[in-house]
Amino acid sequence: MNEGIRQVGTGRRVDGKVALVTGAARGQGRSHAIVLAREGAQVIAVDICQQIPSVRYPMSVPADLEETKRLVEQQGQRCLAIEADVRSAHQMEKAIADGIDEFGKIDILVINHGIAHMASWADTTEELWRDAIDTMLSGVWYSVRPAIPHMIENGGGSIIMISSTAGLKPVATATAYIAAKHGVLGLMRSLSAQLGEHWIRVNAVLPGNVLSPMVDNDYVLGHFAGGRPSAEIADAEFPAQTMNILPIPWVQPQDISNAVLFLASEEARYVTGIAMPVDAGMLNQPPGIPLIATEKIADLEQQHAQVGAG
Prior knowledge:
single chain; Rossmann fold; 7-stranded parallel beta sheet; 7 strands; globular; disordered N terminus
């Protein structure tokens, strides 16, 4: 191997690279695109930009993807914006081909797209199951498969899959989501084992709760708030914080992008096959009632006692 190709610490962290980001129209995907562009990458931004009927919160629209393109170009980098549905192998093959035609290569794949279905097994309909698995598992494969031969020919690359803490830990009311995110980690590990000889690194990032449009909506916030309709951020903050060790309810998209940037960069040149949590300690939360909940219960008991004494 020519060690000079993989030197660390020269210029911006992904200078001269081309990155394809799925789910790029808003939220985490937009953040990944902007951060990678800021650090020197040209960007292929892919998103469906339409509503999936089983999803009960507003999804992205074409104007969102255009805004991502504008923000990437504001970093001084070119951006090719492509509307494509990851559930379609044909559409993703074309998106990959169009990106290579435009920029000549793809060095970094960030498979970020996802949808949230908050449904127990009893409420998981055939449509909901199909949409979740097609989007968040089959859609990951369809996004990766067409790029692999090109990356092999190009001498390597970095594939980063956005799974979730739900890829390792169950959530009681997200049956299909959890199944898909567990599957992503299996796919990541399998591809890492197969593609290492070609200098293709395959890793995953596991976000905990992230304050993005996929969380910041009435539907998902309502589930955090115990099924309360028309819930607001304030209603969900305490329940979300009980899930974490660090005293915050959620992380920001930028925090996930920082992990993506590391895995995309030469700083991680020998890192492959890992699942990196960025979760405020969620996966390491000890069993039992969290400390913050214990303190809340004690406060409520004290208030109740004072009312009773009065």
